[in-house]
Design a protein that fits this description.
This protein has about 280 residues and is of the alpha+beta class. The protein contains six helices and twelve strands. The strands form three sheets. A five-stranded mixed β-sheet has the order 5-6-4-3-7. The protein has a five-stranded mixed β-sheet with strand order 8-9-10-11-12.
Length: about 280
Amino acid sequence: MDLSEANITKQVSKDDAGEGSMARELIKINFCGSTPLLWRTEDLKAARELGFVGTLVGSLARQPRQNTRLGRPLELLLEEGRLMADMERAAVSGLDSKSEDPEVSPAVVEQYYAGLENSFQEQSALALEDRKMTLTRVLTEKQKAMSVQLCTARAGLAHCPQERQFLTADWPMPQDERCKCRFQVFKDLRRRGFYLTSAGKFGGDYLVYPGDPLRFHAHFIAVCVSMDESMPLCDVLAIARLGSNVKKTVLLCSSGESQDDEREEVVYTSLQWSGMA
């Protein structure tokens, strides 16, 4: 898919499910280094509707030091972003770092930063008032709450080309054999209707869910290996035993060319630990 910046602003994709296909706006993917991120609420919703889960990694403005509840942006797996692009439902957003935005003037940039400063002063006063109310509530044992409007709607990068350039990158998908294998496995499992998330803490590549992870537990741990790659027996036993301990089946997934045509096919081998005599 062509991810040129000229197609990002107004570019739409067509939904092929049905005869009367409707035009849809592309999901805008920003990059921080090599990490694909989704910032807009509508993009998070559209990605979820397509079956892409991702991971929320942003801190909440009112509780930045906690890590039990997180917010935007949504971090995607590289395979998730690439598959969305192949489906013509997403494109890389941002400006080319070598070009200048003709619509941005110094006055607009100055106004943008002035608005941020005014918002910071307002939020400082509100935070001080909030702390006073909290102290008063503790002393008087009264339950009161205070709603604070945060400067999040202006966090879109429309008037700050430096920040947009920081979040702009070419598609950083490596082309080595392992990354190709991971993508083919991810694409095939999504085609079969499974949901996938990262499985780094389980020693695999993907956790495979039969449905939305909010409703189901993962049934499989997918480990991507090349067709001609050899695995030490101790590694096979270790991953099989780990899968048994967490009540999941380990899938050894390998991609290769089909004998019938030139398309890639994925071969799956399941492992289950049955103990030692």
